[in-house]
Amino acid sequence: MKVERLLQISVAVLAALGAMLLGGGETDDAALPIAAVLAAFISVYVTDIQRWFSLNRNLANVAALLAVAFSISDFWPGNSTEKLQAIAKLLIYLQIVLLFQRKSTRVYWHLCVLSLLQVVVAAALNLNVSFGFMLVAYMLAALTTLSLFFIYRETVRVDPILKAEHDAIDNRPVFALFGSRDEAGDGGGVMTEAVLLESRLPKNLATVFSSWQMFVQVCKLGIVTLIATVVCFYAFPRPSRDQWGGGLAGGLRETGFKDQISFDRMGRILQSDEMVMRVAFRSPVTDTPKESPLEPYFRGTVLNRYQIQTSSWITTYSPDDEGATQLPAAPPNVEMVRQLVVLNPRTRLVQTAHGHLLFSVYPAYRDQLTSSEIIDDRLAGFLSFAASDALGAKPSQYNVLIPWRPAELENRLLALESRDEDKTKLDWRTKSYLDSLEKVEVFAFGELQQTTRNVVESANVDQKNDFEVAQAIERFFTDEGGFSYTLEIDPRVRDPNLDPLEDFLVNHRSGHCEYFAGAMALMLRYQRIPSRIVVGYKGGEYNSVGNYYAVKQMHAHAWVEAYIPQKDLPESVRENYPTGAWLRLDPTPSGETEVVYEEKGGMLSKALDWFDYLELMWRDYVVEMNSERQENAIYKPFADRIWRPLGDWFNYEEWRLWVKEKAASVGVDIEGEWFSWYMSLLTIFCTIAGFGIYQSSRWFIRRFGQPLWRWVRRQLHFNRHGVTFYLQLERRLARRGMRRAPGQTPYEFVDSLRARLTPVAMDAIAPVVEAYYRVRFGGAVLSEEALSGIEDRLTTLQVELDQLDRSPRF
Which residues form the signal peptide (predicted)? Predict the structure, then answer.
């Protein structure tokens, strides 16, 4: 194929890949990248091959100015992300204009530069793993394009006819449409065919660049480039990664964890797929994955007070130093599972009185692998990480033990532990805390009180049993009250004269999980049931390849915990909770999922799990590879395992002490004067002796080493392949003067014996040689029966050879 045609196709592929990289990013218009991909390939046929349509440089400049003017309107009002998107659109506009020009070295170079700028912009917008795969393809296309561009440019430079044709391209009329192949009206004379590569380069170069050798060289260069890129990416230190932009446009909010809940903001809440953490459940004994039959709740912080003035739930309980301790050891006779949490480096951890707030299924316990810096506040019900260093660095990962309770009721109960000597009674601190969870401000809501009273009375439950009352209120939200879940809070359906929670409960009955949890907590308190709100994450996307839950910001959730005294608990679990228990209540519709993971069959499902796993690895080790993760994942392991042990070999003090110990073992003290006749003579003697040993070793190796090595190698060679039976065959024949000549194959050797052996002996030899070839070159393993048959044939051969010795000779 002609070199120019190859270059045109390669440039079109490069332009298409650059547009696809932009299209895979966070752009709001996918039609424009698709149009750029179509334009790249249409231009090859329409403009480069058929020459039906092309733009002159002047007309192309006008079109480029219009594209710049059109893109300015999108650039100035937006935030950083929108500005990048405006730049991406401008690059595509300019690319399309260049694609429909007649190609010269200038146009080719401009297209390559624009494509590279598209990759730079896409790297800031596209955070998906697909970007990595397309980037590798782009690298190979770029290397191919640059190689062809170099060949084309050098060919134009040395060939006067092609150079004249090339210079004439930039001097065409303003507009050319539906021109003929020779474009006689172009004013440039008859155009010659695109130059064949073989006709313009020396023969040796033409052979290289026009065959598969060029493809091989590009692949080799691509592999070397890829390896060098990976090494540079992970080896060079980097600053912390800053976020693009300063928030969402228009004051929009995104789903995510918050350490307090406020109901004074209206508008739409967007789903965020930002990764928070990866959570795996594994057996602490066998380290095998465990699949939970129920959706896990990852506890964050606990909110215990509702402020009417600000319409918000906050945390006011601040435990003293006696209320928080290290994680307790796992109780006996309880099945445990290890919960391993790997945090996204960008995940923001809330500060507590003891350090950083941690997310975990609760309650949690420790073993020898659990960090001693994890603090547990059993009364308030949250975990903290108390960093030992002065900087208070957050953990990148942590693991704790949790009870494995697949039963639904057990999974929803959390024991309330008491510090009283009598473990069946509550201590004063716990009583005070429970009293604070059933008080005060709830009596300000008249309509909420009446709604609560109607719900409990119509539920036909024992109103003195807190467990039954709490479940009745939960059913009111999930099944009976006509509530609906939404992330868009429309101010037009809100009553500004009512508290947002009371308005939600008695009027519109639509909202997200925070509304459901906040309203239910107030209803429970009206019934004098101590209650609190827990915020954290619920569930996640289970990946069957990595056996983990990928927890994202969209999985942020709020639910309610109500204290149930022992007397009100069901009889089946009452004995296990002598001081009562916290009952988890999820009032959000479809809040309790019975089965979160089902075994999915089919290659498509498996492929999606693999893609999710690659997506996670890409985010962890590429997108989120900040300075902290680089230090923990690369620099520190390298220093601990390689550099420090290697550095000990060059430690002067270590070597000095070693020499001192060895000298002392032969009675020499080198701590005295700096010169010692004894050590000098010993050094001279050791040097002479070492030189003599070296020379003797060289002579011995030359004289006996090589023949000995050939013999050993021959023995190992035969024995390794299990063909000792063939060696026995040759030995028996050699005793009768029949030896295999050097360079003679076993088949040739046996064929040369036909005149000297009987037919019976030849029939015995043939299967032995066949077995030798199968084992030696076919890798076969002979069975015991086959080996026994070979032994019988060797015995037959021996009998024939003995008869041959006794036969008369003439």
Answer: none
The reply to whether omega before 289 is within 30° of 0 (cis) is no
Which two tokens mark 21? 């990289």
Helix axes 129-158, 160-169, angle to 10 degrees: 120
What residue type is 385 in one-letter code? F
Residues constituting the chain: 810
Asked if residues 293 and 406 have their Cβ atoms less than 8 Å apart, the reply is yes
Q: Are 434 and 563 in contact (CB under 8 A)?
A: yes
- Other C-beta atoms within 10 Å of 457: how many? 11
| Cα(27)–Cα(249) distance, integer angstroms | 14
CA 653 to chain centroid, in Å, comes to: 43
Pairing mode of beta strands 356-358, 325-326? unpaired
Angle at 424 between CA 418 and CA 429, to 5 degrees: 30
* Distance separating alpha carbons of residues 758 and 772, to the nearest angstrom: 21
The pTM assigned to this predicted structure is 0.57
Displacement of CA 426 from its chain's centroid (Å): 48
Phi, psi of 55 (to 5 degrees): -105, 140
What is the Cβ-side half-sphere exposure of residue 589, based on CA atoms within 13 angstroms?
12
Q: How far apart are CA 14 and CA 298, in angstroms?
A: 46
Q: Cα separation of 103 and 615, whole Å?
A: 39
Q: Tell me 190's DSSP state.
A: P
Per-residue HEC secondary structure of 399-411 comes to: EEEEECCCCHHHH
Centroid of chain to Cα 612: 8
Where in the chain are the domains? 3-210, 274-585, 721-806
How far is residue 713's CA from residue 356's CA, in Å, rounded to a whole number?
65
The sheet that has 305-307: what strands, in order across it? 261-262, 312-314, 305-307
Average pLDDT over the chain, rounded to an integer: 77
State pLDDT tens for residues 663-700: 777 666 666 555 566 667 777 888 898 888 988 888 88
Question: How far apart (Å, rounded) are the C-alpha atoms in residues 362 and 367?
Answer: 16
Q: Which of 731-768 are b and which e, b meaning 16 or more Cβ less than 10 Å from the residue's Cβ?
A: eebeeeeeebeeeeebeebbeeeeeebeeebbebbeeb
Tokens, residue 706: 């090589």
Q: What is the CA radius of gyration of the chain?
A: 41
Confidence of residue 178 (pLDDT cuts 50, 70, 90): very low
The number of CA neighbours under 13 Å toward the Cβ of 626 is 12
d(Cα 494, Cα 252) in Å, to the nearest integer? 19
List, for residues 613-634, the tens digit of each pLDDT value.
Answer: 777 777 767 766 666 667 766 7
d(CA 378, CA 71): 58
Whole-number percent of the chain with pLDDT over 90: 9
Instruction: Provide the 3-class DSSP secondary structure of residue 541.
Output: strand
Q: What is the C-alpha to C-alpha distance for residues 67 and 787, in angstroms, rounded to an integer?
A: 83
Is residue 271 within 8 A of residue 487, CB to CB? The reply is yes
Closest to 54 (Cα-Cα) out of 177, 160, 207, 238: 177
Which helix (H) or strand (E) element contains residue 306?
A: strand 305-307
First-to-final CA distance of the chain: 78
Q: Residue 564 — φ and ψ, nearest 5°?
A: -115, 120
SS (H, E, C) 646-686: HHHCCCHHHHHHHHHHHHHHCCCCCCCCCCCHHHHHHHHHH
Cβ partners under 8 Å of residue 260, min gap 6: 303, 312, 313, 314, 315
Which position has the token pair 């918050």? 258
Q: In three state form, how does the secondary structure of 518-567 look?
A: HHHHHHHHHCCCCEEEEEEEECCEEECCCCEEEEEHHHEEEEEEEEECHH
